[in-house]
Design goal:
2 copies of one chain form a homodimer. The first copy, chain A, is 28% helix and 36% strand. Chain A is an alpha+beta fold. Chain A binds chain B through residues 3-8, 14-15, 17, 19-21, 53-58, 60-63, 65, 67, 91, 95-113, 116, and chain B through 3-8, 14-15, 17, 19-21, 53-58, 60-63, 65, 67, 91, 95-113, 116.
Chain lengths: 118, 118
């Protein structure tokens, strides 16, 4: 499967930047993996969801970016009960620290290497 | 050194989300490493620079987020000649695809595990 960044959409839309550092427990039977799989699945059902992607440096920072049509979509995801349950568990067990930045996209652009079309 | 996400600042400020997939050449003598070190250094001199961070999944997506005080700071960085030179080289040689999303942060929050203060 070809790996590709989420596309640059036509503004306005929203980015939710979630950056975190997790402890070793998260990966050692702490249940983070299962929770992550579930969240990756559930977020796609949010009305107004546009996409999301994650990058994780081994032993370092993890950055997840969610793309949403509007504030209503973000509110919908924030109020999801499963999401809230996992967030609470994350603060109790997995996260050493995290930051979240919710921004309204004003400009976007992308690049794709010519000739790489499948 | 303790690894920590960039803090959640007081809105408004800007996030520049840059997501990319690079080819193997970038890492095999393609000069990406040196260029990356230089960019990480130069961006800190931009007036209105607040911080930046990167996460890279080995063999997968890389996400860099830059945090800036205002649009003027982003313009300053975009017009930096060394930055422009590296972007051009990146499109010619390293990047398979990338997306960039520039957003004005409306809300932010953070978490730090209690008792972890150094």
């Amino acid at each position: 499967m070809e790996i590709k960044p989420v596309a640059a959409f036509e503004p306005p839309y929203y980015t939710v930047v979630f950056t975190s550092v997790k402890n070793a427990r998260a990966y050692e039977g702490g249940g983070y993996g299962d929770a992550s799989v579930l969240m990756n699945k559930l977020v796609k059902d949010v009305p107004g969801y546009l996409g999301h992607e994650n990058a994780t440096t081994p032993g370092g920072i993890s950055i997840t970016v969610g793309y949403f049509k509007d504030e209503e979509a973000i509110r919908h995801w924030r109020q999801n009960m499963e999401h809230q349950r996992v967030q609470k568990k994350g603060r109790a067990e997995w996260y050493e620290s995290y930051s979240c930045h919710i921004g309204k996209v004003e400009r976007s652009y992308g690049f794709e290497r010519p000739g790489d079309a499948a």
